[in-house]
From TrEMBL:
Entries under Gene3D superfamilies matching the protein: Immunoglobulins
Boundaries of every Ig-like domain copy: 93-185
Protein name: Ig-like domain-containing protein
GO MF, one annotated term: ATP binding
Highest rank taxon of the organism: Eukaryota
Cell membrane keyword on record: no
Length: 356
C-alpha cells in the first residue's frame, strides 16, 4: 500500500534522517523530488520508485522551507553515508543604472537603462508614479542572470525637475533599488509681480520660476535700480523657484512710477512691469480741477440771475412811478410830487431821461 508523508518543521523532532533512511532501506518510502526545488517547494516522501532511492543532485534553495534539513545538519543527523548534502543559498538582487544624475533641457528625449542580477533571476521595473513626461518601458533578458529594462522619456517637462526615478529589482530572497535624479533646465517665467503692499515695510512681491536659477534686475525710469538702505531686494531661493520682495522703507512720491523685473538665465529672459504709487506729490490737488466748460456754465448762470433781478427791480419801480403819478396829483404839494417823480425816473433810466 502506498503512503505519503510531507516533511515539515514538526517532523524534524519526530522523524530523524536515520529513521528516514531506515524506512527507505525497508522500501517503505522513497524520495520524490524535482531536479531543482524552489524555496516554495518541499521535498516529499512517497513510495519508492522502481529506479532506487538515491539523493544525489537534489538542489535546495536555502530558506525557511528547508529549515528542517538545517536542523538535522546541526544535530548531526544528516549522515548520508557517502552522499553529501549541500545548501546553495539564493542571492539578493543587485541593481545598477546607466546614470546617477541626468541633466537635460526641457523638451528633450532620453533613454535610461536598469540592470537587475541575482539568483533566482529578479523581476525589474521602473517606478514612474507622478512623472509628467511621457514614458515607455522595454524589458529584455541579456543573459541568464541579468534582467534589463529600458525607460524612454519623451518631451521632458519642467514639472519633472528634481524627480527621482527609481528602479527596483526583486526576487524571493529580497529587493534592491537604484535611483536617477532628473535635472530639467528651462527658461525663466515670472509667475507673480504684485503692486506695493504695506507691511512692516512696503513690499512688491514676486515669484520667478526657472532653472538654472535666473539673475534678477529691476528697471526704474529707464535705468537699473540700485539697491540702497531704503530700496532693496529680499528673496528666498528654492530648487527652481525664487520668491521675494522689492522692499521700500518709508517710500515717498519720488518713488512713484513703473518698475520692471527682468529675469534671465542661459535659456532665455522674461520681463514684467507693475506701476507703484506710494504718495501724492506736494503740487498735486487731492481732487481733479474743474474743466473750463463747467466754469463757463456757472458764469452764464450767475449773469442770468443778475439780469433777471435787475429787470424785476426796474419793473417794480415803473409800477411805483405809475401809481405815484396817478394818485399823487391830488396832493397839494405838486412840486414835491414832480421832484419825487423825477427822482424815481433817474433811478431807472439815468440823467438823460429826466422829465421836465
Amino acid at each position: 500500500m502506498k503512503s505519503r508523508v510531507d516533511v515539515l518543521y514538526s517532523h524534524a523532532d519526530v522523524l530523524g534522517l536515520r529513521e528516514l533512511l531506515a524506512l527507505v532501506n525497508q522500501r517503505r518510502v522513497g524520495w520524490r523530488y524535482p531536479h531543482t526545488v524552489n524555496s516554495m517547494q518541499v521535498c516529499k516522501l512517497s513510495a519508492p520508485p522502481a529506479s532506487g532511492w538515491r539523493l544525489d543532485d537534489v538542489v535546495f534553495d536555502c530558506g525557511c522551507d528547508v529549515r528542517w534539513i538545517q536542523l538535522w545538519q546541526q544535530r548531526r543527523e544528516a549522515e548520508l553515508h557517502r552522499q553529501q548534502l549541500y545548501c546553495y543559498s539564493g542571492h539578493l538582487p543587485r541593481t545598477s543604472v546607466t546614470h546617477r544624475n541626468l541633466t537635460v533641457v526641457e523638451g528633450a528625449n532620453i533613454t535610461v537603462a536598469c540592470n537587475g542580477s541575482g539568483s533566482p533571476l529578479p523581476e525589474v521595473d521602473w517606478t514612474v508614479g507622478g512623472l509628467h513626461s511621457i514614458n515607455t518601458h522595454q524589458s529584455n533578458v541579456d543573459w541568464p542572470n541579468v534582467h534589463s529594462i529600458n525607460l524612454t522619456l519623451v518631451n521632458m517637462s519642467r514639472e519633472d525637475n528634481g524627480f527621482i526615478l527609481t528602479c527596483i529589482a526583486e526576487n524571493v530572497v529580497g529587493m534592491s533599488n537604484a535611483s536617477i535624479e532628473l535635472t530639467i533646465q528651462f527658461p525663466p517665467t515670472i509667475l507673480k509681480l504684485e503692486e506695493p503692499e504695506r507691511r512692516h515695510d512696503t513690499c512688491m512681491e514676486f515669484t520667478v520660476w526657472g532653472y538654472p536659477h535666473p539673475t534678477l534686475r529691476w528697471i526704474y525710469k529707464g535705468k537699473e535700480l540700485p539697491q540702497t538702505e531704503y530700496v532693496r531686494v529680499e528673496k528666498d531661493v528654492y530648487q527652481d523657484f525664487i520668491e521675494g520682495c522689492l522692499t521700500f522703507t518709508n517710500p515717498t512720491h519720488h518713488n512713484n512710477g513703473n518698475y520692471t523685473l527682468v529675469a534671465s538665465n542661459s535659456l532665455g529672459t522674461a520681463t514684467r512691469t507693475v506701476y507703484a504709487h506710494f504718495l501724492h506729490s506736494l503740487d498735486e490737488s487731492p481732487t481733479p480741477p474743474l474743466s473750463g466748460t463747467h466754469q463757463s456754465d456757472e458764469d452764464t448762470f450767475g449773469v442770468s440771475i443778475a439780469v433777471g433781478l435787475a429787470g424785476f427791480a426796474c419793473v417794480l419801480l415803473l409800477v411805483l412811478f405809475v401809481l405815484i403819478n396817478k394818485y399823487g396829483r391830488r396832493s397839494k404839494f405838486g412840486m414835491k410830487d414832480q421832484v419825487i417823480s423825477g427822482y424815481v425816473l433817474i433811478g431807472c433810466w439815468g440823467d438823460d431821461h429826466i422829465m421836465d
